[in-house]
Design goal:
alpha+beta; two-stranded antiparallel sheet
Length: about 50
């Protein structure tokens, strides 16, 4: 099958990162920039409609 011209395309995404308390955030800001290990979840959906 050969696809024709792209007619429409849409995308949506979401992400999740654990919440950090405001007190901990302020303390970290005074100490400089740090990178903390942890989980980040990202989800994406792409929808495309092609002509035949």
């Amino acid at each position: 099958m050969t696809l024709g011209e792209l007619i429409t395309m849409g995308e949506s995404y979401s992400s999740y990162a654990p919440m950090v308390s405001a007190v901990a955030f302020r303390a970290d800001a005074q100490a400089g920039t740090t990178i903390s290990p942890g989980d980040v979840e990202v989800s994406a959906t792409v929808q495309m409609e092609f002509a035949f």
